[in-house]
Amino acid sequence: MSPTILAAMHTSGTEAALFWIFGPIAVLAALGVVFARNTVHAALMLGGVMLILALFYAAQDAPFLAFVQVIVYTGAVMMLFLFVLMLVGVDTKERLVETLRGQRLATVVAGLGFLLLLIAGIGNAAIRTSEGLANANYPTNAAGQIQSGGNIYQVAKLIFTRYVFAFEVTSALLITAALGAMVLAHRQRVMPRRTQYELMRERFVRGAHPTPLPGPGVYARHNAVDTPALLPDGSFSELSVPTRIRELSAEQGRRPVPSSLGSAAGSDRSSAEGDER
Amino acid sequence: MSPMFYLYLSAVLFTLGAVGVLLRRNAIVVFMCIELMLNAANLALVTFSRINGNLDGQIIAFFVMVVAAAEVVVGLAVIVAVFRTRRSASVDDVNLLKY
Q1: Which residue range is the domain that position A241 belongs to?
Q2: Which of A76, A136, A234, B48 is the most exposed place for a label (fewest CB within 10 A)?
């Protein structure tokens, strides 16, 4: 973005419009993070907040941080969150019992007090004018010529000169974090790995289904995975419907065996179909 | 538009994150609320950088992002390790040191 475009953006009401449209959305999404029952919803709301903040960084002359925000936060961090969510189990219910009595009320009171304190502090701060980053991003020489390629050049200049030591220490931090994660998430194998031969033996000794389970039934009028297969004797095979689908059908009040199917498929027809299988 | 509004927004987001840390019992959601607080602090830093007219605030926000990424990696590994031993991601279940 050239300085003139940036200046035009600040003099016009574009930034104010941007702020007043996306600011309230960010606050609503943050409320969603705190109060959403479903953890995945909370994670998505947090992703929304992060995207809106990236927009605000871009509006505040920080295009480098805007891109880093999108790549690092919404790209890497949120994906890691979702990954661990799926690993830990999305459907683990959060207990809503208060462990400490009166904790919720105290939290809300403390939160409101803290917010008031922060807002009063910001309001009291003697900030009258904003310098703007036009000079910092596009420094000029004595002749008045622009000497820089913009925000990213200037940020890079600072990182590799004044903050170069912090930058180098960061690399040590990242390596330590990667090693730490590997050590923490590593699981020592206590028992030797079971071979395929042992697994096969175990399955046959138990006597449970050495063959694949029967597939669900596919009929003229019912072509669905929750339709159980017909056995040669005319009965339905419960094994042919996956457990989760059976549970879902029960939850939704649908019986796994459609009654119309039982009457339509007569005993001789069903046995004929069974013979074909 | 005065950049003060960004500071107010940052204060609101930070408070919501803090309230979330205190209210929620699920360790992952607590962690997400910490991320929300870090993001709010970053917004304040970027706004300060603009108010003061130099880029140091943006650099600090950049380092905060790097540290946050490292922190997320280690924190989530801890959550996974705790989940393996307790079969639970609730912060209430991590109470062995209490007794």
Answers
A1: 229-275
A2: A76
